[in-house]
Amino acid sequence: MYKKLFGEIGKLLAVSSVLALAIAGPANAGGKLRILTWDGYADKDWVAQFEKDNNATVEVVFAGSNDEMWAKIQGSQGKDFDIFATAAAGMQRYYEAGLLQPIDLSKIPNHAGQLPQFQDLSKIAGAVHDGKTYLIPYAFSPMTLIYDPAKVNPAPTSWSVMWDPQYKGKVLLYDDGESAFATAAILNGVQTPFHLTDQQFKDAMPKLVDLKHNSASFYTFVQDSVQLAQNNDAPIIFGAYADQQIKALAAGGLNYKQAYPKEGVIAWVDTWAVTSGAKGDSYDLALKWINFVISKKIAAELTEKSGYANSVTSTDTIPAGTKIFWMQPDEDPTKRTDLWNQVKATP
What we know:
This protein has 347 residues and is of the alpha/beta class. The chain is built from eleven helices and 15 strands. The protein has helices spanning 2-24, 44-54, 66-75, 92-96, 177-187, 198-214, 222-231, 242-251, 280-293, 296-306, 333-345; strands spanning 32-37, 57-62, 83-87, 100-101, 128-129, 132-133, 136-142, 144-147, 171-174, 215-219, 236-239, 257-259, 265-275, 309-310, 324-326. Strands 1, 2, 3, 4, 7, 13, 14 and 15 form an eight-stranded mixed beta sheet that branches. A five-stranded mixed beta sheet has the order 10-9-11-8-12. It has a two-stranded antiparallel sheet with strand order 5-6. Strand 1, helix 2 (44-54) and strand 2 form a beta-alpha-beta unit. The chain is globular. It starts with a helix and ends with a helix.
């Protein structure tokens, strides 16, 4: 009797389980995608749309620094995340550590609609190795001269304005040795500002010490520069974030414009890469995510929401004819950091 009763109960439970699955659908039927990126690069509305379109689950973790991103990817040997985004110039160490895998471009049809400067991926630092693609451009920005038109007139045309004695103690500088030495080198006429010789470093040091003496303060993030500009007389700002920075300054009640020096501007480009840990459905979802965020709609929303120039829709961010020095892996990042710290410590 008990055997028969338990048998009937078992049948009912089995039927109930099937009905529950039919109603709820299979868990994570479309798979799971794990993303590591910067704030603003995986908007919650985009994630919700992607999950709906692909019947998938997306987990997003935002990194606060390049060091944190490296630690998370390298620490798990790429197994904790399927895809991440960071500057192309910094991707070389991930490739050398075996933490990236090739991207099947045939599954990224929206690449064909990216801006002309991003069509030849071999021109993007570290994007192509042995004929295989590892990076897809997403957002980019030049580093420009930002100035207060009420206090700087006429508009500056050269990086040398940051050294002008009349702005002593009034220049906000980006706290970064890589771009600082590159800018000094460009002003010295160097055409390879990310691969400096010992002599070129030697030539740049006194120039940067002089610049330090003109500084009001140093900033790291966009909002830092806004707060410093609000609290200091700072008619000149080294604009590491260009359009986004102008937008943030305006939101803070400040009227600044930007100029593109005749010597040329440094420009960074952030790219998406697939980790060596992405397998099966996760790898396919990673490619679908890249294709999704470089669609015209999402790319335009990126610019609208964050102020970053995107790699798809046409923008006037960099005027025609501007000389651009796309950021490349440095000859020695540690050396640049150490020397930059020496510059800042010089009385």
